[in-house]
Automatic annotation (TrEMBL):
One of its GO terms (biological process) is DNA repair. GO terms for molecular function: RNA binding; RNA-DNA hybrid ribonuclease activity. PANTHER family: UPF0102 PROTEIN YRAN. This is UPF0102 protein Rcas_2007.
Length: 167
């Protein structure tokens, strides 16, 4: 199995050190950052100071003039990664990260059921605002921000799809 990981994530040397916290493993982790198979509970991975996908997406949106209203808004129905405002429209943003397309493209990851849950969370967000700033007449949409990474986790591109979910 580690040989397969070594082929999928070259540079980490998984075939030699088996992923244990050896000096070589820790050096590669510092050099390349965590990859998909690293346990996020492993202290050196948790302490890696790499931008999280939501942070990269947030910076991208802010650079396009969006104002961030909330992040990681959770309800029983699900979670919205970023809530932003563009002019008079409220924008609910789903952030997806991909390293290659072996598991499909990020924009293919929003199923009909997921789209319905996102819409439900969006409506709950607007209802939860006690200040009455958002109401049933507030214009809103659901966008998708796709972050494409190389095998080391370096950001290659950001693809922002407006109106990604049609309701």
């Amino acid at each position: 199995m580690m040989g397969e990981y070594d082929a999928a994530f070259p540079g980490y040397g998984f075939a030699q050190h088996k992923g244990y916290a050896t000096r070589q493993h820790l050096q590669r982790l510092r050099e390349f950052g965590p990859c998909d198979i690293h346990r996020r509970s492993f202290a050196p991975v948790a302490q890696a100071h790499l931008p999280l996908p939501e942070q990269s997406a947030r910076l991208h949106l802010e650079s396009k003039g969006y104002r961030i209203v909330a992040t990681n808004f959770r309800t029983r129905a699900g979670e919205i990664d970023i809530v932003a405002q563009q002019d008079d429209e409220l924008v609910f943003v789903e952030v997806k990260t991909r390293r290659g397309e072996s598991f499909g493209r990020a924009d293919e990851s929003i199923t009909h059921a997921r789209a319905e849950r996102l819409a439900e969370v969006a409506e709950e967000f607007m209802q939860s605002r006690s200040d009455g700033q958002y109401h049933s007449g507030t214009a809103w949409r659901i966008d998708l921000v796709c972050l494409n990474l190389d095998w080391r986790g370096k950001l290659l591109s950001v693809n922002h799809i407006e109106h990604a979910v049609k309701l």
